[in-house]
Every structure is written in structure tokens, then in C-alpha cells.
Amino acid sequence: MPGYYHYSFLNMKKKIIYEHEINFYFRSAAIWSLGVLLYDMVCGEIPFKSKEKIMENELIFKHDVSDEVKDLIHQLLNAVPEQRPTVDQISKHPWMMS
Questions:
Q1: What is the pLDDT of residues 44-67, one digit of tens each?
Q2: N- to C-terminal Cα distance for the chain?
Q3: Domains of the chain, start order
Q4: Taking the model in full, what pTM does it have?
């Protein structure tokens, strides 16, 4: 049965890696969604009106909002998922602390 255990170990390892990747995807997608919601809350509209605008990732603030909230929204909507802040980092952001 040595082959069986080796096969089981490899499957378990693949499953752990897959679950880690899925968790990272969901976390980064949730952070992006927080950015969209925050933008909507402070500006009264969604930040991107089309898929093309999402890909351009250019934020325009038509309303007068603080530099701190702009910074937080920019961080949340970062096009590079690995560079988006964690929930802990968000809670310690200057805008959240004010």
C-alpha cells in the first residue's frame, strides 16, 4: 500500500494548495468589493461603468472627498490583487482611525 499513501499525500497537498489559492482569490475579491462599496457610499455612484473602465482602473472623484478616503479607495481597488490591503491594514488606515 505504499503507492496508495503517496497518492493520498499528493492529492492532499494539491487540495491544500488549491484551497489556499481559492482563499486568496476570495479575499482579494472581497477587498475589491469593499472599495467599490466605499466609493459608492462617499460618491453616490459606482466607480466603473463598464468592463473597459474596470480594466483602465482610473478613478475619478467627481465629489469633494478627503485625501484619506481617496487613498483608501485607491488601495482597495488596486489592480494587482497581491497589493490590496488586508482587513487588518484597512482597519488601521488613517481614514478609518479618524
A1: 999 998 888 888 888 999 889 999
A2: 62
A3: 2-97 (1.10.510.10)
A4: 0.76
